[in-house]
Amino acid sequence: MIDFRPIILAGGSGTRFWPRSRRAEAKQVLALDGERTMIQRTIDRLEPLVSSGKTWVITNDLLSDKICCQLDKVPEEQVLCEPAARNTAPAAGLAALLLEKIAPGSVLGVFPSDHVIADEVAFVATIQRAVALAAEGENMVVLGIQPTHAETGYGYIETGEALRDGILHVRRFTEKPNRA
């Protein structure tokens, strides 16, 4: 059985939804649909994929108390605060180092806390395939969607040759390109 460990990145400052979302009240702790917060929806979405007590959250000092109060399924000691806000790669690296000590050989999945997923059944099936592929060896699996328009606020994946059914090699990843 594959030991899958989701890491939820929840340290963002929330400037895109200003004025509703601010540093101490970032979008991931808001219930934009009036029912569940974005981070609660993220945890709910991953629940069919992971055993209890295996999910971790990386956040910041301003949000940690709110997040702990919202997540009854994640032990408080598994909600970690970044020592300094440095974006995605350092937060994922921190989680990877920690989990290599706690659960060597586990498959680490890094997920943003603020995505809206329309087809959650397809999402779960895709994550199951991704976890299985990652567990086959020294693989890093990156998920992406086909963009509908150019957007400098997001990174993009340049794909390479096909590996097998719907799985492509990554030629290059570009983080939030300039407008030029």
TrEMBL record:
Q: Write down the superkingdom of origin.
A: Bacteria
Which Gene3D superfamilies does the entry link to? Spore Coat Polysaccharide Biosynthesis Protein SpsA, Chain A (3.90.550.10)
According to its UniProt entry, the protein's GO biological process terms are: GDP-mannose biosynthetic process
Which molecular function GO terms apply here? mannose-1-phosphate guanylyltransferase (GTP) activity
Keywords for this protein: Transferase
**Does the record's keyword annotation contain Transferase?**
yes
| Domain Nucleotidyl transferase positions | 6-179
Q: Show the Pfam families listed in the entry.
A: NTP_transferase (PF00483)
Mind telling me which PANTHER family this protein's record contains?
A: MANNOSE-1-PHOSPHATE GUANYLYLTRANSFERASE (PTHR46390)
Q: What is this protein called?
A: Mannose-1-phosphate guanyltransferase
